[in-house]
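Re: the pair you flagged

First of the two:
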Amino acid sequence: MNPGFYNVVFYATAAVLVSAVVALEISRLRGGKKGRLVRLLCAGEAFGLGEGRAEVKLADGRVVEALVPGCTQCLCRLRPGDAVVLTKTAAGYVVGPGA
């Protein structure tokens, strides 16, 4: 086969995957509840290494407790006052970085 064919397939696949990730991120931001991080409820110094909990104040004034995945805490360096987006799951709310 022609090597140019593989380039076309590679770039087409990359474009589809990037488009899917962008569409999912837009969907998450539009469908989630926006709020501000009130405080981190962590046990000890190892909060960034594993899952933790946080209190988040929603736009309607309610304060809810939500799960903060370790990756989100470590990569986003969340602090009280940061804007976050909450996604509803079967286990409750999950914190994600805000827009």
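Second of the two:
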Amino acid sequence: MILLINNKYEKRLYNEKLDFNDNLKFSKITFILGENYKPHFFITLDSLGNIFSEDKISVRDNTITRNFKLTSAEINSIDSLFKFSCIDKTDTAGWNCWWCCDDCVPMLIKFEYNNKTTIIKTYEFTKMPYRIWSIYWRITKILFERENS
């Protein structure tokens, strides 16, 4: 929004409520850390709150598997973050950096929502928009809290 005084540009104002899209309904969110065919870390969350994760913990491919259902408060917090994500209006081509660097681990993020799919491939967490990062952070925080309780 632009504030005009006497038809003269004064100030550009921003309101985050404009970014909230109540029509966004996610059906599935998937995070894959590592190569598709052999991931190091894998999380899937569906709209019913079922979460499944696998974590490779050693070179010998020992796997920790977690499968549980989120509480309604946890589902609502992730759903709210998703509705603020602007994923439906954002051009994701800018963050699809999939070139190789020596010390980087590839990450694939797949959002399935409103009969659409958006896939983000990146090697750098810092290139991920903060609105997407907050969804990943919230889901991994829930996993950590469940593991340590």
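The first strand starts at residue 2 and ends at 5.

-B.
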